[in-house]
Structure formats: C-alpha cells, structure tokens
C-alpha cells in the first residue's frame, strides 16, 4: 500500500461532541480472521472485515454469526511492511463487548505484530 493510500485509510472519523469513547477510532477496512475461544480452545474459525480500529478495540463484520459475548483472537495482514521488506500480521486477543446488526465490537486485551518474513513476501510476488 502506498503511503498516500495509507494516510487516506487512517483518516479520523468525524468527531461527535456527544462521543464518550476513550480512544479515537480510525476507519480502516482490512480482511480479518477470527477464532472464538472457549477454555483456551478454538470453538469457531471465521473471516470478516474490519470497520474501524482504535488503540483499545476493533469493530468488524463477521461472515458468519458470532455470539454476543466471548473471547476471541483476531488476525489481520498489516498494510505496511517492516523496514519496507517484511510483511506483518497484527494479532489481537480480547472479548466481544457488543454485537448488533452492523457488526461486532471487541475490547482488545493484548496485541502483537508478527513477522511473515522476507521469503513469505517473495512468494506473494510470484
């Protein structure tokens, strides 16, 4: 993704004076994979797309129904390369705090970037 497109992708949402959120949301739309976890085991695996992301949470659409509450692991391909050569994946764990007709809100407990390596990037190019 070009830097110009990256800047467009992370433009701030219009601020609403009544908005009470602690973290600013950014309208980033990326493919996402999720795992619904129960007692440390994967109950459900699925895909979807992010609607917006903040430093404290993520709002996304799931391709298949998810429960109103539960623990999840989310993973997405990060749109920028580490040092311009290494693909990154953002992996987050948290809990579903809200579900409605427009999507699922997850409060993030922890996150980490994982590298896919230079070889993975060269395979994508071929």
Keywords:
mainly beta, single chain, six-stranded antiparallel β-barrel, 126 residues, 13% helix, Pnp Oxidase, Chain A
Task: Report on the architecture of this protein.
This protein has a single domain (3-13, 28-125), classed as Pnp Oxidase, Chain A. Strand 1 (31-38) and strand 2 (41-53) form a beta hairpin. Strands 1-2-3-6-5-4 form a six-stranded antiparallel β-barrel. It has two helices and six strands. It is mostly beta strands and 126 residues long.
Summary, kept brief:
The protein has 126 residues and is mainly beta. The chain has helices at residues 3-9, 117-125; strands spanning 31-38, 41-53, 57-62, 70-77, 87-100, 103-116. 13% of the residues lie in helices and 50% in strands.
Mean pLDDT across all amino acids:
82
Topology order in helix (H) and strand (E) letters: HEEEEEEH
| Proportion of helical residues | 10-25%
- Count of DSSP E strands? 6
Uncertain ranges: 4-18
Overall tally of domains: 1
Query: Rough shape?
Result: globular
How large a portion of the residues is in β-strands, by DSSP E?
Answer: over 45%
Radius of gyration: 15 Å
CATH topology name, in short, is Pnp Oxidase, Chain A
In CATH's first tier, which class applies? Answer: Mainly Beta
N-C termini distance: 17 Å
């Amino acid at each position: 993704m070009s830097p110009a497109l990256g800047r467009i992708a992370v433009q701030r949402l219009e601020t609403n004076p009544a908005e009470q959120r602690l973290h600013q949301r950014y309208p980033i739309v990326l493919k996402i994979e999720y795992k619904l976890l129960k007692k440390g085991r994967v109950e459900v695996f699925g895909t979807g797309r992010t609607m917006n992301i903040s430093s404290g949470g993520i709002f996304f659409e799931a391709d298949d129904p998810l429960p109103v509450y539960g623990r999840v692991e989310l993973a997405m391909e990060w749109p920028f390369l580490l040092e311009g050569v290494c693909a990154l994946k953002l992996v987050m764990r948290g809990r579903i705090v809200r579900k409605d007709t427009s999507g699922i809100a997850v409060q993030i407990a922890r996150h980490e970037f994982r590298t896919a390596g230079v070889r993975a990037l060269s395979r994508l190019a071929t």
